[in-house]
Design a protein that fits this description.
With about 300 residues, the chain is of the alpha/beta class. It has 15 helices and seven strands.
Length: about 300
């Protein structure tokens, strides 16, 4: 594609993800060592030689680069998209007027998942835009406990995007505990979506191991029963399908189904609804006073 564009004078725009740039001069000079003889023969079938590849890749080094940080905020990523559109000479007028990034100080819908994974984080960002567009209610992707603490007093819903290895993600476990234990008197409602076909619901052995050992270095055995209880509660909710790479029409329909789970958005949209929030210290103190209660409840759920 790059060689064909270069040979036919088609404009090329470079988007650098997380500071990844074009190959340097030495790498271009040795590019023929990257591919096998079979792959080179495939290129020759399209009349593409190694010299053409080198010329095209050398040309890339002369082009301006638009930088996109995949873990940046929605606002920063939208700014990169605008820069990309300007480089491509695409009008940004309509896009600028309908930007989906907003102030998230009073988000009624929190969205999270394996946000330390770039692909999963992008799925969460896209879902937040679509949910906000559908409901006209503020949505926010939360990435750490600090953001959760700031939002718990006004948020009515937590949307969790399930993906492979999510339940082994210590950062997600901390975030989930903060949501569940920070709202004891008025629990936050959890909505789950399955955004990864490779996600597998864990067997009973996973929960038993979690109860005994906890998760990671920061959530050791003392957190085990509490975390297992939170995970059981999370997975007891029927997960709705989400196809991140699906068509726009399919995604719109799936998001509409997700939004039907939000039953009290009208009050939340007014921005007047406030919830009672327990501090994390209070939640930990309550768990330490009667740690066995969480274990007993888990056992009863298993037998049921």
């Amino acid at each position: 594609e790059i060689v064909s564009a270069h040979r036919n004078n088609i404009p090329i725009v470079l988007l650098s993800c997380d500071k990844c740039g074009p190959l340097d001069k030495l790498a271009v000079e040795n590019i023929q060592d990257v591919w096998t003889s079979e792959q080179k023969n495939t290129l020759l079938q399209y009349h593409i030689t190694m010299d053409m590849v080198k010329d095209a890749y050398s040309y890339l080094q002369t082009l301006p680069v638009v930088s996109l940080q995949r873990y940046a905020s929605m606002e920063d990523q939208e700014s990169a998209v605008l820069d990309l559109m300007k480089q491509s000479k695409i009008s940004t007028k309509a896009f600028s007027k309908n930007r989906m990034s907003v102030s998230t100080e009073r988000a009624s819908i929190l969205i999270t998942g394996a946000v330390l994974n770039a692909e999963a984080y992008s799925t969460c960002l896209n879902l937040s835009m679509l949910v906000q567009q559908t409901t006209r209610v503020e949505a926010k992707v939360v990435r750490d406990v600090g953001q959760v603490k700031e939002a718990l007093a006004v948020a009515g819903y937590l949307v969790v995007v399930l993906s492979k290895e999510l339940l082994k993600d210590e950062s997600f476990a901390k975030l989930l505990l903060a949501c569940v234990e920070g709202r004891v008197e008025e629990p936050i409602e959890i909505v789950t979506v399955n955004g990864d076909t490779s996600f597998e619901f864990p067997p009973l052995e996973f929960f038993k191991d979690l109860e005994e050992k906890g998760l990671g270095s920061d959530l050791g055995p003392r957190y085990g029963p509490r975390l297992a209880k939170a995970y059981r509660s999370l997975l007891s909710v029927l997960a709705l399908p989400l196809s991140p790479h699906g068509s726009e029409a399919l995604l719109a329909e799936q998001v509409r189904e997700v939004c039907r789970r939000f039953r009290t958005l009208e009050d939340l949209a007014k921005g007047t609804k406030m919830f009672q929030v327990e501090t994390l210290d209070e939640a930990e103190e309550a768990a330490e006073v009667n740690p066995a209660s969480a274990v007993v409840e888990v056992v009863l759920e298993e037998e049921f």
